Amino acid sequence: MIIGVLGVGHLAAAMIAGLMKSGDRQTILLSPRGKSKELAARYGLEICVDNRELVERAEIVILAVRPADATAALEGLPWRAGQIVVSVCAGVALSQFPAIAARIVRAMPLTAAEINASPTVFYPEIAEARQLIARFGLAIALRNEDEFEVATVNAAIYGWAQDIVRQSVHWGHDHGADQQTMRQLVAQTFVAAGRMIAETAEPMETILKDLVTPGGITELGLEVLEERGQPAAWQAACDAVFARLTSVPKDRSGYVDEVEGAG
Ligand SMILES: NC(=O)c1ccc[n+]([C@@H]2O[C@H](COP(=O)([O-])OP(=O)(O)OC[C@H]3O[C@@H](n4cnc5c(N)ncnc54)[C@H](OP(=O)(O)O)[C@@H]3O)[C@@H](O)[C@H]2O)c1
């Protein structure tokens, strides 16, 4: 499999790390610019002379430029039938891309692709794209692009979850706990919370109810959070991100640099 990466920045670096860990018998070609020199040196990868060479040689191309650069990056290149483009550009709809011979799939990996732990939504379902995306972590095909846009909000939730972990670790450290111990404890607690929901069939309300002892510490904390604006604050944040994603004009004429990035 010859994989081309067009746009070698932060997310591409995470995806390439994941690909290097998960694959053999693969060639990864990089577009020039960004972090391509650094990553080529780290992994022994080849940098193409230009994007034309990358498109000529790659079977599947990951498009990882910033959203405002996405449509222009595909223009004027020698795309061919049978080729696949996996765009990870947040908020850029399929209808905004130029008509090219290659098929375009949208995907939304998290930086956890670096450790092959990114649940990654994608649309439409195409077998070769799924094969590639599954190497970043759990590949989840969505039913349509509207659903993809809703699910893209999760890319921001990933960062908020990390921020809550960070804040909890600092709180513990400020109160005398060892920082490294707190880091492992809180991070693994979030993993545990996620796995309990992902890996059991119980309704989420039941799972939560089972752990909230009446008059206990979990209940106390939930009450304080509610007094201070939860879950309304969290839902408002989701609404704001969704509004940003869906306010970007979905045709090629009006795309503006409103969706700076998923991260
Ligand atoms: N960061 C995340 O966690 C995350 C998560 C999910 C999705 N995404 C999506 O991933 C995309 C990239 O985000 P990022 O954070 O990785 O951005 P980034 O670090 O700015 O990387 C984008 C790279 O694309 C390069 N580039 C732009 N146009 C190019 C072209 N025509 N040919 C070759 N290279 C080109 C830029 O090069 P220069 O530096 O030379 O301009 C830059 O290195 C965005 O669309 C974002 O929505 C990001």
UniProtKB/TrEMBL annotation:
Pfam families, sorted: F420_oxidored (PF03807), P5CR_dimer (PF14748)
Gene Ontology terms, MF aspect: pyrroline-5-carboxylate reductase activity
InterPro entries per record: 6-PGluconate_DH-like_C_sf, NAD(P)-bd_dom_sf, P5C_Rdtase_cat_N, P5CR_dimer, Pyrroline-COOH_reductase
Residues annotated for NADP(+) binding in this entry: L6, G7, V8, G9, H10, L11, A64, V65, R66, P67
Keywords: NADP, Oxidoreductase
Binding annotation for NADPH: N51
Domain Pyrroline-5-carboxylate reductase dimerisation: 164-244
Keyword NADP: yes
GO terms for biological process, alphabetical: L-proline biosynthetic process
Domain Pyrroline-5-carboxylate reductase catalytic N-terminal: 3-91
Protein origin, superkingdom: Bacteria
Family (UniProt): Belongs to the pyrroline-5-carboxylate reductase family.
Name this polypeptide is given: Pyrroline-5-carboxylate reductase
Species of provenance: Aliirhizobium smilacinae
